[in-house]
Design goal:
heterodimer, A: mainly alpha, 7 helices, B: mainly alpha, two-stranded antiparallel ribbon, 27 helices, 4 strands
């Protein structure tokens, strides 16, 4: 495992805080895009070299998470002509604090896990947990459908980092499969956003409450 | 050869309904094609089973199958052949009957669905009887159970049909749950999912749990007394030929499961036998008790299925007790009695349901108190019903006598001698006698109310005799009842083969040595000859007698046809004796003054287990879960918060 892994993971963690702390949706999308690119680089570094299969996985991660999905989201933003997340359930400052708490909890919890020796000093596991928790935070506290997608992407990135620890055990096919799932899910959510816009003239997910039986 | 025949039969019957689904609903030719395919399949299955019974050896086939824990293992041994033969005969006769009873030109809405799933039920039953791997067994079991749900709810536009269909679905799901647990335990204890390798599991401490789960799962399907809740409604509301197949063979798959399960255990603990005998007594006595109290013709017959399953369980219990205490004669009598009663009950109960269906077809009602006097309009149907009634009451000269006699002999042998489990035999034999006497009273009531007297409604008055398509299967079944009754000694070798397949390590004596089958059949034949002679003698006198004669009308000025004994009044005394279990509810009329006004009387016997135990329990559960409703608010954010909370709690647990 390369020594550049941990600094890159710190960058990934920093990118978690941007969607939590900003109301500007473009910035939030760009942060996840950058996170996606970092994950692609991490895949190569962790697998230790440019063997064909990890390289293929890394390339598709960068292409899908770093370019294609953000492009879709930017387009959706333009079509819906919204720029900012307004009135989140939890304020941006409080979200940042919660994000910091989540990071701390992740580090604390990692110490209690029975990890394999080669993962003991590494940031992989805490970064993964912190990213998953951040994704959940975004999903719970934001109202706009676009931010929900961003939260979902961050959550998935966390799962992907956890997958990196298993690079020996897990075939790349699984990772590619997960990637495909993500793409499909984003499409589906995109369609839902479109319908929300048309039917309710708003992108507020809370208006879905009316669908309760 | 046997195996390939039965596999062909499964394929043919499973696909027999497909032509119907491919045809537009206006065409009628497909129903004959469906029936022909099903009959062909049934003929293959029957040939296979007769071959297996005659050869006295099984035929097996194994093949790999890329399903976890699964391999394709199929075997037709004598035990399976007993059930395969019955399935083949009854489903084919039911399909012919269906041509006249549920013709596409009258039932365009659901005729194709009914035929398609009728084939699937048949194939599922055949598959589960010959399957020797647990996965294959469950595939057959589930196809049968789920397709039967569609058959029960054929007329799903009626609310009561939907209700009983739903109840059946719930029950069968629960039964399957028990079976999954049972197979998992069996597989873990023996290390194989092949049914033939389960002798090992039966020596492990898990065997009692396995038996209890099997008793629950298979007992639910068979309709054993406290687990029978789905049975009366489903049998009453399904189309009559489906009721006949369900009562005749489908519930017997539960018996087959119990027989197969107990076959695996060479030295069963005695409590298995006691449990089977106790459940048998409960089902036999209370089944007929509930039957007595019914006003609905098909519902009444359904409760008699519970009674007869009780008799079958008694036989099986005797066999298990004989095996655990080492009495070969008990094994032979008990198991042969149980298996022969499986056949016999299939014959006479299908006959009864088919003739009840003919009555329903002609009058449009199942209400006993709307019928009456049908003997004049429908003498052939009446004769079929009479034959079925005599058979089900265990009277000579028909088949019910033979199998009940075997069970009685087993119980007497168990009860006499004062050794081992004698008390079970000493208590169960009188209980069986009680059930038999009550069954006789019940069928006197039904036959009297439906066929004798004068018509109680215009529907009964306008009834016409059923057509040949309905009468032919009934005639064949009635003939079958007589053949088994008179030719019992000829069937003994087949039953011996089944007994040997069930308990190969016991050197059970042949039936001919432990039961007087020959003399019984001879006596039956003599009785039949005497009856024929008397009929020939009295026939001219009867024909010469005046057709319509008024009875003494107690001085009423204008009696109506409703002033006859009703189903309730006939059974009132006996229902009163069983009031502790049946809990009848009555609305008595209040008559006051010398000129009382119009009043009405109504009596009803709800199913004790369903309405007094299960319904309150489930309502309580529903109320408990109702209190969880506030956390279900419909907000996506809140739901994600629940997930987050669970995740964090799990991370920091411990």
């Amino acid at each position: 495992m390369s020594s550049a892994v941990d600094p890159l993971l710190v960058l990934v963690l920093l990118m978690n805080f941007l969607p939590l702390g900003t109301s500007r949706l473009r910035a939030a999308i760009n942060a996840t895009a950058l996170q996606g690119v970092l994950l692609g680089v991490l895949t190569v570094l962790v697998h230790g070299g440019l063997a064909p299969r990890p390289a293929l996985v890394a390339a598709s991660v960068v292409a899908i998470k770093g370019a294609f999905i953000p492009w879709l989201l930017h387009r959706a933003l333009r079509d819906a002509s919204i720029r900012r997340e307004t009135e989140p359930y939890v304020s941006f400052v409080a979200s940042l604090l919660l994000g910091a708490l989540a990071l701390g909890a992740a580090v604390l919890f990692t110490d209690r896990l029975p990890l394999a020796p080669e993962h003991r000093g590494s940031l992989l596991v805490p970064a993964s947990l912190a990213t998953v928790l951040t994704g959940f935070l975004l999903l719970c506290t934001r109202r706009k459908a676009i931010t929900q997608v961003v939260g979902y992407l961050v959550l998935e990135n966390g799962v992907f980092i956890m997958g990196l620890t298993l690079h020996d055990a897990m075939p790349s096919l699984v990772e590619v499969g997960v990637l495909l799932d993500l793409l499909v899910a984003t499409f589906v959510i995109g369609i839902v956003i479109g319908h929300l816009n048309r039917a309710l003239a708003s992108q507020d997910v809370a208006s879905l409450d009316a669908l309760k039986e | 050869m046997s195996v390939w025949l039965v596999l062909t039969a499964i394929a043919l019957t499973a696909t027999s309904g497909l032509p119907g689904l491919l045809c537009p609903r206006e065409t009628r030719a497909f129903e004959r094609l469906c029936t022909a395919l099903l009959t062909l399949g049934a003929a293959c299955a029957a040939a296979s089973s007769v071959g297996a019974l005659a050869r006295r050896g099984g035929a097996a086939l194994s093949a790999p199958w890329p399903v976890p824990g699964g391999h394709l293992a199929v075997e037709v041994d004598a035990l399976a052949a007993v059930f395969v033969l019955q399935i083949a005969v009854l489903t084919a006769l039911g399909a012919w009957y269906g041509l006249g009873y549920w013709p596409q030109r009258e039932r365009a809405a659901n005729g194709r669905k009914l035929r398609a799933f009728y084939g699937v039920v048949t194939a599922g039953m055949l598959l589960l009887t010959v399957a020797r791997s647990a996965v294959l067994f469950l595939v057959g079991w589930e196809s049968m159970a789920l397709a039967a749900f569609v058959l029960v709810s054929t007329e799903d536009e009626r609310p009561e049909v939907r209700e009983v269909g739903y109840l059946y679905l719930l029950s069968t799901r629960f039964a399957t749950l028990c079976l999954f647990a049972m197979f998992a335990l069996l597989g873990a204890a023996s290390g194989t999912l092949d049914l033939r390798g389960w002798g090992a599991a039966m020596a492990s401490p898990a065997r009692d749990a396995i038996f209890a789960l099997g008793l629950c799962g298979f007992g639910l399907k068979a309709g054993v007394m406290p687990l029978h809740v789905w049975l009366p409604g489903a049998h009453a509301n399904a189309p009559s030929h489906v009721s006949a197949v369900m009562s005749g063979v489908l519930i017997k798959t539960g018996v087959y499961g119990l027989v197969r399960l107990t076959a695996a255990c060479a030295a069963p603990p005695p409590w298995w036998g006691y449990a089977l005998v106790a459940l048998g007594v409960l089902s036999a006595v209370l089944g007929v008790g509930f039957a007595l109290a019914q006003h609905d013709l098909k519902r009444l017959l359904a409760y008699h299925s519970v009674e007869n399953i009780g008799i079958i369980l008694l036989g099986l219990g005797v066999a298990v007790l004989g095996r655990s205490t080492g009495h070969p004669a008990l094994v032979a009598l008990g198991l042969a009695g149980a298996l022969l009663h499986v056949w016999n009950h299939g014959l006479f109960k299908a006959l009864l349901f088919l003739s009840a269906g003919a009555v329903l077809y002609a009058t449009g009602t199942r209400e006993l108190d709307r019928l009456g006097g049908l003997w004049r309009a429908m003498p052939r149907t009446g004769l079929a019903f009479l034959v079925g009634s005599v058979a089900i009451c265990g009277l000579p000269p028909l088949n019910g006598l033979v199998s009940e006699l075997l069970v009685y002999l087993g119980l007497f042998r168990l009860g006499s001698g004062g050794r081992g489990p004698w008390l079970a035999g000493a208590l169960a034999a009188p209980a069986l006698a009680l059930a038999g006497a009550l069954a006789l009273a019940c069928f006197v009531k039904v036959f009297g109310v439906v066929f004798l007297g004068s018509p109680r409604s215009s529907a009964a008055e306008g009834a016409r005799e059923a057509g040949p398509l309905l009468l032919l299967p009934m005639a064949l079944l009635a003939g079958g009842c007589a053949v088994v009754g008179l030719g019992a000694p000829l069937l003994a070798p087949a039953l011996d083969a089944a007994v040997r397949a069930w308990a190969p390590e016991v050197s059970a004596p042949t039936l001919a040595r432990v039961a007087p089958l020959g003399p019984v059949s001879a006596a039956s034949a003599a009785l039949l000859a005497a009856l024929a002679f008397a009929a020939a003698l009295l026939g001219p006198l009867i024909r010469a007698a005046p057709r319509a004669q008024g009875t003494w009308d107690c001085g009423y000025a204008a009696p109506t046809a409703r002033m006859q004994y009703t189903a309730s009044s006939f059974a009132e005394l006996l229902v009163g004796l069983f009031a502790w279990a049946l809990r009848p509810t009555e609305q008595l009329p209040s008559l006051q003054g010398p000129f009382p006004t119009r009043a009405s009387y109504h009596s009803h016997v709800p199913d004790a287990v369903l309405d007094r135990v299960l319904r309150p329990v489930f309502e309580l559960i529903y109320r408990v879960f109702e209190s969880l409703r506030p956390i279900h608010r419909g907000s996506i954010h809140l739901y994600i918060l629940y997930i987050l909370g669970t995740l964090v709690a799990l991370l920091f647990w411990r």
